[in-house]
## 1
Amino acid sequence: MATQIEIVRTVADLRTRVRTWQREGENIAMVPTMGAIHKGHMSLVRQAKQLADHTIASIFVNPLQFGPGEDFEAYPRGEARDAALLADAGADLLFVPDGREMYPEGFATTVHVAGLTEGLCGASRPDHFDGVATVVAKLLLQCLPDIAVFGEKDYQQLLVIKRMVRDLNIPVEIVGGAIVREPDGLALSSRNTYLSSDERETAPLLHTTLQQAAHEVASGLALEPTLESAHAALEAAGFRVDYLEARDPVTLVPLSGNVSSARILVAAFLGKTRLIDNVTVPPQS
Ligand code: PAF
């Protein structure tokens, strides 16, 4: 049977609960989400639980991070199901603000992280990271947890958030959570539900191809020919590749030639669904 969880919907109520815990000397971890909860989010909550006395999850489908023609309207929503899953994973409190609570009339502030946001997903989704940085800055300042956990599947997002928190002296430690995959390697994502059954069969090739490229680079092949053949393999399988690049794992500076350490990142469309994934060089398995 699904576990119950307390839900607060206003910043004032969130702060009252957080202050009570903090006065008792207990620390807090936060897991921000846009709902459509899956095992990847649940693993972030479990990780947060190991790191703090209390775990707060939030659900807010943030309109600022969706571009025109993207899936803001279609994004899967279902608070009761999400709340039950987050509670099962061990969250103690759920913050579910509505649009007005998050962006009141006259809201006029944007957080922009220069540099890190410019390539990769930032190239094809121009305002996306401003929307992410703005909402995450707000969520962190609304809650002021000790720790916040974000998934490594959105690797560029994780680095953008770490940089923003450092630059703005937001007193929260940002922790990355490992990518959770289906048994066939497909990274869990709320957008996987958009895939047709044929597309779902093809989708794991994204990870297989990245892993193969990571092994090749680790064994001494140069990045350019390796990424070129990975790109061709993906296109031949039916993907439309948005980007496939190797970057420095900390600075996201583009890499070339022979490298011993890198992150290979991809975004590719299968039909209308845009999937992202990334792997480390040397590969983890
Ligand atoms: O990764 C997500 O689900 C969102 O980008 C986040 C961090 C919750 C901000 O809306």
Note: The longest strand covers residues 262-270.
## 2
Amino acid sequence: MSGTNNSKFTFNQSVQYYFDKASALTEHSEGLLSQIKACNSVIRMRFPVKVKGEYHTLEAYRAQHSHHKTPCKGGIRYSEGVDQDEVIALASLMTYKCAIVDVPFGGAKGGIKINPKKYTTGQLQRITRRYTTELIKKNFIGPAIDVPAPDYGTGAREMSWILDTFVTFNPGMIDAYGCVTGKPVTQSGIRGRVEATGRGVFFGVREAVSVAEDMKALGLTTGIEGKRIVVQGLGNVGFHSAKIFQENGAHVIGVAEYEGAIYDPTGKGFDIDALFEHRTHTGSILNFPGAKNIENSSEALELDCDILIPAAIERVITAENAPRIKAKIIAEAANGPTTPEAEEILLERGIMVLPDVYLNAGGVTVSYFEWLKNLSHVRFGRMSKRHEEMVQRRFVDAIEQNTGKKLRPEERNLIIQGGSEVDIVRSGLEDTMMGAYQDIHATWKTYNGVRDLRTAAFVVAINKVATSYIELGIFP
Ligand code: GLU
């Protein structure tokens, strides 16, 4: 699926390159900046797993990039691409991401170098439990220490296994359920977490396309309605992004996956649920009724569209394909999909890049809500929903009595309804993504020397982490 990756930077070097570009514009001391940039701790693990009577030695990592706020936070990925450089790069992105959306955590990331598709469920469970045990032994997991979550190749199922292992080794720890997020709702997870990254991508793009002046410069109209979207990756993030864009009037005209890509020659856009169903049944997105197949999946990145959403892996937009990209906006739902060389070309061509450190922060934002729920041991809305409804009912009754007019029952119900957990989560996420965009946008437009949104996002992040270190007295 990836393009030819001809970057001179490793993934971690590219994150450092973005950091350096932004930090040069700030006024912090060299010592403070080098502390913010450095990855504080990394553990590398090797452990055996027995597969069909044979032992395989697996390689795994957990990196804690920053402890300016604790616990550390970040996903765990299962992929053959996992190595120390990647885990450190992703952990650093988590630090900046959390700072941008005001989630009070340091950044972390873990990974096991496996292709999960090659293992049975039982084997994956053993691998996950063994990895968790290693983290426990090294004091690299816990609700106040380091809180993993899903990432590429993992999901709610793996988080349940992590939880069960942690709870088993920590009997009596009352906040133990906060040791991991992205759990199933029935295991103290939170409603709205699965879709959170995709919904956050939607809110972020919606903010960006609402600024008339920026859209004019791109030759686009404001608003989501009618925008032509291409999505790379139909995993959790890509699927939910695509579905939410479709629900809000955009046309998803292209979708790319490992097996190939498809596009809609009519321009009306795919029905994402139907496409997902088709893939589940046939094992492929190809040959979807009404769609045209594209054999070479990465060519989908070059389709004529308004918004391109890379939602799979890193380094797919490179110096090689960047000159041919036709999208006006690149919405980085994945972590690190654009190489620095590609970004130079895109910016030069006037393409807007909505950077990963901001745009995919919806996942960790709702992870934060889940962690808060776990520490408070109560579902959001449980104590307040009926009370809110009672107050609102009295209010509507008073208006009806005083005006002598009655609302229609559906209007009345809509006004009276108290917030359920998913309503509260979605509105918290919306507010977070809107507020963070306004910060980044203002920095882009007004901060001396900032010329693009990624640099703006890094400046915002660096300034917030720096403030922490200064206020804590660690730096003068
Ligand atoms: N893996 C996700 C990310 O890269 C979520 C991390 C979390 O929820 O802690 O942002």
Note: DSSP finds 16 helices and twelve strands in the chain.
